[in-house]
Design brief:
single chain, 270 residues, mainly alpha, 77% helix, 0% strand
Length: 270
């Protein structure tokens, strides 16, 4: 009896040590991507400001101060700030909740890591087009950001299907659907009017699409964050990995592990 339980605990130890190491590596990658996103957005906002307001020209005596710019320019700058903030917060919340250390799901972070990295770089490039003259290019880049996000979100769902097909699938589909709808609307509007005036209805529609997409993304991310918090609160107080590592280090007795197994705090795989 004791020999069988020892074999079960040893098997648990080997597998769960590997799983815990994988979760730890995922968490490290997610943290690196979060920091990268923060750096890109932090650099993109002043670049957009310099491109729009041209403070060097103002310092030389020719040029408009920031609050002397046209309403359309100020609104476009505000939209870029909103897009950057949306991307930063939603990526931060998603990575923090999905790839945290205590998430027992077996997930592959590669699609999300690549997708967030690429969209972050493109949003950084988009800061160079935050002006009235470059408005068509600005929104073309925005539609490209949404397209890339959709592609890698679908790849993430496909690679992690067993883990997300339950309660998390609805959030993933809402996220993808939001980006598909507004990415397509933005692309079609820019394609039909490759050049337009900031006061045109096309410009107003594009700005509305960007704002609505960002608002819906915020709502989806916040619901996902609170759902993940509820899931975490339902887990047992004793972490399986802590039990396994403690047994490996000889810090707990066999009868204590047996008690945890019988109570369902630590589940036997067999």
């Amino acid at each position: 009896m004791v020999s069988t339980e020892n074999m079960q605990i040893a098997d648990l130890s080997r597998q769960d040590i590997v799983d815990a190491e994988n979760r730890r590596n995922r968490s490290i990658i997610a943290d690196a991507i979060r920091q990268m996103v923060l750096i890109i957005i932090s650099l993109g906002l002043p670049i957009a400001y310099n491109h729009l307001a041209k403070p060097d020209d103002v310092a030389q005596g020719h040029g408009l101060h920031f609050f002397q710019l046209s309403p359309a320019s100020l609104l476009l700058f505000a939209i870029y700030v909103f897009i950057g903030t949306r991307f930063l917060l939603t990526s931060w919340l998603y990575l923090s909740t999905t790839y945290r250390d205590d998430n027992p799901r077996k997930l592959r972070i590669l699609p999300d890591a690549i997708g967030i990295f690429l969209t972050g770089v493109i949003i950084g490039v988009q800061s160079c087009y935050a002006s009235e003259k470059s408005m068509p290019d600005f929104f073309q880049i925005f539609s490209l950001v949404l397209l890339i996000d959709v592609v890698f979100s679908l790849a993430s769902v496909a690679m992690n299907w067993q883990a997300v097909k339950g309660e998390g699938l609805f959030q993933e589909l809402c996220w993808i659907g939001n980006n598909v709808v507004f990415g397509a609307l933005t692309f079609i509007a820019v394609s039909k009017a490759p050049s337009f005036d900031p006061t045109d209805s096309t410009a107003h529609s594009l700005m509305a699409y960007a704002l609505l997409n960002c608002l819906i993304s915020f709502v989806i991310s916040w619901f996902g964050y609170f759902r993940a918090k509820r899931e975490a609160s339902k887990r047992p107080d004793h972490d399986l990995m802590a039990v396994v590592l403690a047994k490996r280090d000889g810090a707990i007795r066999l009868d204590e592990v047996r008690r945890w197994l019988s109570a369902g705090i630590v589940r036997d795989r067999h």
